[in-house]
Amino acid sequence: MVDPDPERPVLPPAPGDAAPAADGPGADGPGVERDAGLLTLPNVITIVRLSCLPLFLWLLFGAEDRAAAAWLLAALGATDWVDGYLARHLHQVSEVGKILDPVADRLLFFVGAGGIVIDGSVPLWFAVVVLVRETLVGVATLVLAGMGARRIDVTWFGKAGTFGLMVAFPLFLASHSDLSWADTAGVLAWVAGIPGLVLSLYAAVLYVPLARRALAEGRADRAAVSA
Fold first, then answer.
1. What own/partner pairs with CB < 8 Å and gap ≥ 24 does 9-16 have?
2. Less Cβ around it within 10 Å: N or C end of the chain?
3. The dihedral of CA 141, 40, 78, 22: what is its sign?
4. Cα separation of 181 and 198, whole Å?
5. What is the pLDDT of residues 17-45, one digit of tens each?
6. What percent of the chain has pLDDT over 90?
7. pLDDT tens profile 213-224
8. Per-residue pLDDT averaged across 129-141, rounded?
């Protein structure tokens, strides 16, 4: 389970400011990076990840195979970093990808965690706290973007918390499967889940002052551009 954390739109430089340098494929000229478009390898990977969510639900509720569903969810979470990494290193950053990637990450949380809640394989209080936090972050992201805030970089606490939760949910599901190590999976789920939950909540608190500063800086940028 796309940093399920806030992004900001990229604002044009103020008049007189030097444009950031760009090099390698994807640069139209000095300081200009071309949008890679829709059909890129990172976008294909993101779409494949999204298309696997119905398969996860079918494995969980149709085939009633918790073990297979857990393995698939774990794979989707483990590949969370791949599309962003390839986009940067292959110079295939696109506006579509900037939207698809966080959408895929958040859907992974909501569909994965929601399905496991319905299945009854995860403690309800744990899943509710995670989903409420994700909802608040998602709403805040949309509101800040609409108000023109600068991008808020993902903190280490947010990344670590997301990783812990992406590990925990498949393990909770595996702990209720017929796997031979189901009991061990239950213990490991708490080992990963509690630190992940604490770190993700702490990251959400840290984003409050960051959001205020990003909003003020975004407004200042727009004022400079229009001046």
1. 9/145, 9/148, 9/151, 10/151, 11/148, 11/150, 11/218, 11/221, 11/222, 11/225, 12/225, 14/221, 14/224, 14/225, 14/227, 15/224, 15/225, 15/227
2. C
3. negative
4. 26
5. 444 444 444 444 444 456 556 678 877 88
6. 38
7. 888 888 787 777
8. 88
* Residue 213: both structure tokens together: 């500063």
